[in-house]
Amino acid sequence: VTLDPERPLARRHVARGGRAYTLRDGWLVEVIGGCEERVLAATEVPVSYGGTAEFQLRNALFALAISRAR
Description:
Blueprint: H1 8-15, E1 19-24, E2 27-32, E3 35-41, H2 54-68
Antiparallel strand pairs: 1-2, 2-3
């Protein structure tokens, strides 16, 4: 989980077959195998003040990651 989709640690994790959850172009995104799927617009995250409260977006990304855990 990272707000920076270009973070090297997240990119390496995905390259090794892992999943990442990030914020890209105003969307919460799930990254699997280099493919990105937009899940939810950041502006739609409750209590994120229109997508500007980064700590709330990070919390939403963690909730997304937990919900997709196997």
